[in-house]
Each structure stands twice: as C-alpha cells, then as structure tokens.
Design a protein that fits this description.
It is built from 9 helices and 14 strands. With 340 residues, the protein is of the alpha/beta class. It folds into 2 domains: 140 residues, NAD(P)-binding Rossmann-like Domain (Rossmann fold, 3-Layer(aba) Sandwich); 185 residues, Dihydrodipicolinate Reductase, domain 2. The structure holds NADPH dihydro-nicotinamide-adenine-dinucleotide phosphate and aspartyl phosphate. Catalyzes the NADPH-dependent formation of L-aspartate-semialdehyde (L-ASA) by the reductive dephosphorylation of L-aspartyl-4-phosphate.
C-alpha cells in the first residue's frame, strides 16, 4: 500500500518544488492533497501532468493522511504540527520551529540517516536550514576521513531563500532600476538588485544573525557537537542556488588531491574542479539539479591541515524540497510511516 501525502504550503516556492520532486522520484503516493491558506482555496498547482486544487488547511481532515510535508514557516508549523501528529500523521517540517528539539531528529539523509529512528518520539522530523544541508553533504566525508576541527564559512544565498516574495522583489527591483522606478525594499532590508546584503534572519545579542546561529547549532546536532563553526551569511541577487565558501581545519592531513577523490565518490556530491576558465560550478547551473556541487578544492597553507571548498546547490531542491522528500523516502523504506 502506498503513502497518503499532504503538502502543506503547496503554493509556496518550496511546496511547489516538493510536488515536482515527489513526482520525479516516483514517491509511492496513494493520494496527494495540496494545502494552503484560506486565500489560496481552489488555486491550482501542478503534480506531474496533473493539476491539483488547493484546499484550505482549516477544513482539512489530517486523520486521512500518513505523511505531511510541511513548508509554511515556523509560526504556522508550531501551531499546526502538534494537531497533525495528534491526528496520527508524521510531519516532515521544513521550518526552523522544531530543529533544536532534542526529541526531533534533524536529518540530511546522506549524513545521518540513522537519526530517522527517533521519529517515533514526536512523529516529527525536521529538515535543516538550506545552507546547513549543502554544507553537511560536503563536510561529512571529510569529517569521517580526517576529522574536522573548525569551519569558517561565508554564504552567498539566493533570494528564493526568502520565498516567492523574495524572488518577486528581485525581479521587480531589477526591472524598475532600468526605468528609474525605485520601489522601497519589503522582503529585504535594503535594495537587493545589483547589491549584496550581509543579513539573513533576525539579529541576535552577540551581533550574529539567526541564520548564522542556525548553521552553527545544526552542524553540531547533525555532524558532531565538537565542530567549531563560524559563518557570515549574505543575500545575493541570484534567483535560485546558494553558494558557500568554506575554510576548514582538519585534525589530520588531507591533500586537495585526496579530498577531490574522496568527495568524488561520496553520496549526493558532484565535483567540478578543473583549474581553467569555467571549470567550477555557479548557482545558476545548479538549478533543477539534485546534487550538491563542490569546486575550487584547495589546500589552505595559512593554517595546519587547512582545506578550502566552494559548495553550490539548488536551495529549493537539496536545501529544502529534495531533502524533505529523501527524508520521507527514508521513513517509508524503514516502515516508519505507519499511522500511530
Ligand atoms: N526557500 C528556501 O530556500 C527554504 C525555505 N525553507 C522554509 O520553508 C518554508 C516555506 O518557504 P517558502 O516556500 O520559501 O515560502 P513561501 O512564502 O513561498 O510559501 C509559503 C507557503 O506557506 C503557506 N502558508 C503561509 N501561511 C499559512 C497559513 N497560516 N496557513 C496555511 N498555509 C500558509 C502559503 O500559502 P498561501 O499562498 O495560501 O499564503 C504558501 O503555500 C519556510 O518555513 C522556510 O523557512 C527552508 C529551507 C529553505
Ligand atoms: N533563511 C533561508 C531559508 C530559510 O527559510 O531558512 P530556515 O528554514 O532556516 O528559516 C534563506 O533565506 O536562504
């Protein structure tokens, strides 16, 4: 018997991608329900060749599904997830609401699939932050081989990380600038077209942003609590695809050549690293891809056992929808999607 699925947030940037990926990967769904807010009731979204009509979450009976792929923001998740799990379904949540809950597994399937077993505690699995996910896929093999002590990274995050509204703002602003029509920023704090904004999510007391804090804490939970990580997260005028420049200190030596060979054979990764013009990955080229791409693999001679990487992935796919569907596949393969 297949799985009865609901996508909660189906009109959003991530929700639409979830539907595409469920269909592309032939997820064994017996039924797919598409849910959004009241204002989207009846709105149509695509699932392969089929067109599905959105249902208002307020009127949906969650006891009729086994799995809810939730992608409607933290506050909505905090309100709805307890009600959904009480109705017996399992929630794979894309927001940051449950990630640091010790009874909720935080999973990147290529990195810590064994953590999925913990779903039995609260019937929730959390999908990590988009930048964290692609970083984890690249760091895991290096950590297993040479033990990572410290990571210093800078992210270059696309506007789709701020949802449909972020993409609309970049599009409108870019067009507007050419006709001298300056609209005030709404989705971002400053102009994003032709600019870079060193600020994602709210500021914290120590001057870091929550986006940076999430990368630190989620890395500890997923990979190793001993890893020290420092991040600077910036928004760049790219529609889809996040990039990370990561500077890594290892306990044991690992040459760039060894790292290249290791990453080449590791799950979820593609190495594109030719020392020539264009021999590296850019975010635009990652759009629509499943893989996390690693380029510019170099030894960093300024620290002992230092290694530098350029990591790129489609944030709506591996950074969100794909990882969530992989989690669902992992739960299903382990027989963990049974109703409670
Ligand atoms: N974009 C990314 O790269 C990543 C996003 N995420 C997380 O995924 C989630 C969604 O992101 P994204 O798709 O980009 O956001 P969007 O703003 O594009 O979409 C939000 C979705 O949530 C629905 N929604 C919002 N409020 C409610 C409500 N009260 N009741 C029912 N449905 C509601 C919206 O429905 P309606 O259209 O009816 O308002 C819409 O379908 C967020 O938690 C975000 O933090 C996580 C990792 C990466
Ligand atoms: N904050 C990320 C996307 C996101 O929603 O992350 P999170 O789920 O950790 O809040 C970005 O803007 O690119």
């Amino acid at each position: 018997m297949g799985v009865r699925v609901a996508v909660f947030g189906a009109t959003g940037a991530v929700g639409k991608e979830m539907l595409t990926i469920l269909e592309e990967r032939l997820f064994p769904a017996d039924a797919i329900h598409v849910l959004a807010s009241r204002k989207s009731m009846g709105k149509e979204v695509s699932y392969g060749d089929r067109v599905l009509k959105c249902v208002n979450v307020d009127t949906f009976d969650f006891s009729t599904v086994d799995l809810v792929l939730m992608s409607a923001g933290g506050d909505v998740s905090k309100e709805w997830t307890p009600k959904i799990t009480k109705a017996g379904a399992i929630v794979v949540d894309n927001s940051s609401a449950w990630r640091m809950d010790p009874d909720v597994p935080l999973v990147v399937p290529e990195v810590n699939p064994e953590a999925l077993a913990g779903v039995t505690k609260k019937r929730i699995v959390a999908n990590p932050n988009c930048s964290t996910i692609q970083l984890m896929v690249a760091l895991k093999p290096l950590h297993d081989r040479a033990k990572i002590l410290r990571v210093n990274c800078a992210t270059y995050q696309s506007v789709s990380g701020a949802g449909q509204a972020g993409m609309d703002e970049l599009w409108t602003q870019t067009k507007g600038i050419f006709v001298n029509d300056h609209a005030d920023p709404v989705a971002f704090t400053k102009q994003i077209a032709f600019n870079v904004i060193p600020h994602i999510d709210n500021f914290m007391e120590d001057g870091s942003t929550r986006e940076e804090w999430k990368m630190v804490m989620e890395t500890k939970k997923i990979l190793d609590p001993k890893i020290k990580l420092f991040a600077t997260c910036a928004r760049v005028p790219v529609f889809v695809g996040h990039s990370i420049a990561a500077h890594i200190e290892l306990e044991n030596p690992l040459s760039a050549k060894e790292a290249r060979a290791l990453l080449r054979e590791s799950p979820g990764l593609m190495v594109i690293d030719k020392h020539e013009d264009g021999g590296y990955m850019t975010p635009v080229e990652s759009v629509g891809e499943f893989a996390t791409f690693v380029s510019r693999i170099r030894e960093d001679p300024t620290v002992e056992n230092g290694l530098a990487l350029w990591i790129v992935a489609d944030n709506l796919r591996k950074g969100a929808a794909l990882n969530a569907v992989q989690i669902a596949e992992g739960l299903n393969n382990r027989g963990l999607l049974k109703r409670g």
